[in-house]
Design brief:
single chain; globular; Conserved Hypothetical Protein Mth637, Chain: A; alpha+beta; 34% helix; five-stranded mixed β-sheet; 2 helices; 5 strands
């Protein structure tokens, strides 16, 4: 599970960084399809098929729990690498 903050109506889709609550800040300009855009963005960011990513909780909230199917240990390492790369860009 990833804790995600979705900011709809942004100028672009991007993973912007880590929030204080421990999740990833995601922005999507697609308000009507924000959940689908979020799932697609997370899948691309992790390099997994979109079918492995789904919003599990928070469908109507900006704070969401995103489930990623697969090997939990491998995914945890992958997320840590991606987050470290984001921190290096700041």
């Amino acid at each position: 599970m990833l804790a995600v903050r979705l900011n709809p109506k942004s100028s672009r889709d991007e993973i912007a960084g880590i929030e204080d609550h421990g999740g990833t800040c995601v922005r999507s300009p697609k308000l009507a399809a924000a959940i689908a855009a979020l799932e697609s963005l997370i899948a691309r960011w992790l390099g997994v098929p979109p079918s492995m990513v789904s919003v599990a909780h928070g469908g109507k909230s900006r704070l969401k729990q995103v489930a990623v199917a697969g090997d939990a240990e491998a995914l945890s390492c992958l997320v840590a690498q991606r987050v470290a790369a984001l921190a290096g860009k700041r």
